[in-house]
Amino acid sequence: MHFSLLTLLSTVTALGNAAPSGLHTRDIPPAELAQFEFWVQYAAAAYCHDNYASMAGHKLTCWAGNCPQVEAADTSIVYDFSNTTATDTSGYIVLDNTNKAIILAFRGSYSVRNWIADVEFPYTDPKLCDGCEAELGFWSSWELVRDEIMKYLTATVNANPTYELVVVGHSLGAAVASLAAADIRGKGHLSAKLYAFASPRVANPALAQYITAQSNNYRFTHTNDPVPKLPLLSMGYVHISPEYYITAPNNSTVSANHVQVLEGEVNWNGNTGTGLPSLIDFPAHHWYFEEADGCKGPGLPFKF
Q: What's the domain count of the chain?
């Protein structure tokens, strides 16, 4: 399937016919907000070149100044990955001794604008559950690095059995993180937590329901960010639940009353209800408690 930006506009009728899975909302306690602000900094750190390019044994840093709590923690990179696959999947595994956590982080895409304007989202069978289908590019981005990551991840978890396991990412990194978390849980790490910021849709309803049922999912959207609106509902893709919908303006402090927790694979009260994806709404994609992609390098390389 091939969709241009003009084709996206022609699907408004199909979008309107998509039935919501639930419209229930709940508030978050203020204390939970601190956790959200903390874990997004690990997603932000995944954009910084020095954290994913042959830096095993080093401490995490963010030249953009958008991960101060991570920089203050006692961290050590266990394994980093980049430039080894056709998908250029990049990120790291880090040990955080201050917060007693093992974090697997995936970098977002440098060329996300390109795949909004001219996108193709075929399905593939990830063999996670009966009837489950995942988006091919997102699943391949995980599958091509999975074996080496699992080797280091399992060894690190075994060496630190009391540490929590957290999988994070922003944008494309959040899509890969969502599928990776589902797969990792299926391989025995049942309590792995997912913090996915600005994730596109990654699954058909069967897979979305499977991941939702695993629990420990924190999927964030922000106002009219166009990225979580792709792939389109008319293509059969839906989100995992719940959605943590951030209503604060761009470049502003997010308070607890700026985050709505919305249930369901499709919920028109959140990001999905703000209209079709548009490049003019792209500023909302950057701000998730911090400028999540502030460490991106210059230019827009044609990589996924």
A: 1
